[in-house]
Structure formats: structure tokens, C-alpha cells
């Protein structure tokens, strides 16, 4: 039930403790000299539509076919415009669309599971933006794990979970012994804290 996990995990991403976010944003400079407010507003509007549809799900353990179809239709409709944006701007980073805009664009790409090649294209662009300190490393962590999961490969940062028959479990990780160190470097909480948060959501 990938759609439901998407909502919950992204909600967790927004409520992390301030010190963790500080680590994730350390070194990022965003003078906003080239801020494109029109593009920023458009991306924020698309993300709001996406999240509103997901927040309207009444029961995360018993999602109706209609709810799934509605969410999928929104993601599919956004696909073309997202592709147009990266063809013109590359990854829309913090300087171009601000922290909120960059965050929202990443969220939208996370939900493009029906188009793996597009997610992989965005992953490469996001990596470049992170290296230029124009995007958040924690976003790269989530997206590379998402791509790995969609390719049926072990994830790196432990951001992806499976939800089957009412039970949640961590999707296989490439290097379990180094997981918490990698998460720390990406500005994420420990896997133990993360699991506790997820279990509260699905209680």
C-alpha cells in the first residue's frame, strides 16, 4: 500500500525535531536572488492538492479503490508539468523556489512511483543540487530509497517501509550496521526513533 505509506512518511519528515533539521540544512545558503515566485506558487499549489487528497483518507488500513484512484489520478496529472519544470530549470532548488518550494517539489517527485525513469532522472538532478547546497540531503535520502525500492533493491537510509496485512516492517536495508550513522549524516532521526513514530501513526 505504497500510497498510504507515502503520506505517513512525509508527514514524519515535516515534524522532525529542530536539531535534526538543523543538521540537514547545515551549510545551505539561500540568498533567493533568483527567486521565481510564480513557479514557487505553482509548485506549492500542486503539493497542496496532493497532500489534501491523501489527508482525506478516512482509514489508512482500509483504503477504498476510489481513494486510491483519486490519488493516482492527481500524481499522473502532475507528471507532465513536473517534467516540463525540470526540462527548463533542472532541479528547482532553494535559490529558485525557496525552502518550501524545493521541499514541495521533492514531495511531488516522491509520489511519481508510476514513472520510475522520471524519478531516477530527478534523483540525479537532486544529487547535483545537494552538492551545490541548493537542496536538502534528507530529500536525497528519501528519494534514493524510493527509487531503490521501486527497483526491488535494498534501500540505503531506511526511509521506506512495507505495510502488509495490518503490519509494518522496514524494507530491506543495504548496510544495517551503518544505518544510523548514514541517517545522522542526512539529518534524519535514528531508525529506532523513526520506527516508534511510524508505529504511533499506524496504531
Task: Summarize the entry for a quick read.
This protein is mostly helical and 203 residues long. It is 65% helix and 4% strand.
Distance between the termini: 16 Å
Class from secondary-structure proportions: mainly alpha
List how many beta strands DSSP finds. Answer: 2
Order of helices and strands: HHHHHHHEEHH
Report the sheet with the most strands, covering strand number, pairing sense and barrel closure.
2 strands, antiparallel
For the CA atoms, what is the radius of gyration? Answer: 16 Å
Total number of distinct structural domains: 1
Helix content range? 55-70%
What's the pLDDT, averaged over the residues? 85
Note poorly predicted spans.
1-27
Shape: globular
Please report the number of helical segments. Answer: 9
Strand content: under 5%
Within the largest sheet, what's the order of strands?
1-2
What does this entry look like structurally?
A hairpin with a 2-residue loop joins β1 and β2. This protein has a two-stranded antiparallel sheet with strand order 1-2. It has one domain. α3 (37-55) packs parallel to α5 (94-110) and α6 packs antiparallel against α7 (137-150). The chain has 9 helices and 2 strands. It has helices at residues 2-14, 18-25, 37-55, 65-89, 94-110, 116-131, 137-150, 179-185, 191-202, and strands at 161-164, 167-170. With 203 residues, the chain is mostly helical.
Key attributes of the depicted protein:
203 residues; mainly alpha; two-stranded antiparallel sheet; 9 helices; 4% strand; globular; disordered N terminus
Amino acid at each position: 500500500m505504497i500510497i498510504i505509506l507515502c503520506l505517513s512518511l512525509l508527514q514524519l519528515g515535516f515534524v522532525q525535531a529542530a536539531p535534526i533539521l538543523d543538521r540537514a540544512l547545515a551549510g545551505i545558503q539561500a540568498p533567493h536572488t533568483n527567486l521565481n515566485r510564480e513557479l514557487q506558487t505553482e509548485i506549492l499549489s500542486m503539493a497542496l492538492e496532493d497532500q489534501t487528497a491523501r489527508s482525506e483518507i478516512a482509514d489508512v488500513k482500509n483504503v477504498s479503490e476510489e481513494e486510491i484512484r483519486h490519488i493516482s489520478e492527481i500524481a499522473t496529472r502532475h507528471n507532465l508539468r513536473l517534467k516540463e519544470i525540470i526540462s527548463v530549470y533542472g532541479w528547482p532548488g532553494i535559490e529558485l523556489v525557496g525552502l518550501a518550494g524545493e521541499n514541495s517539489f521533492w514531495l511531488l517527485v516522491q509520489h511519481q512511483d508510476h514513472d520510475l525513469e522520471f524519478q531516477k532522472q530527478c534523483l540525479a538532478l537532486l544529487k547535483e543540487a545537494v552538492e551545490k547546497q541548493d537542496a536538502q540531503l534528507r530529500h536525497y535520502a528519501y528519494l534514493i530509497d524510493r527509487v531503490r525500492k521501486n527497483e526491488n533493491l535494498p534501500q540505503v537510509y531506511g526511509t521506506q517501509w512495507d505495510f502488509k496485512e495490518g503490519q509494518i516492517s522496514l524494507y530491506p536495508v543495504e548496510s544495517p550496521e551503518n544505518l544510523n550513522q548514514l541517517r545522522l549524516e542526512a539529518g534524519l532521526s535514528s531508525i529506532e526513533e523513526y520506527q516508534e513514530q511510524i508505529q504511533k501513526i499506524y496504531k
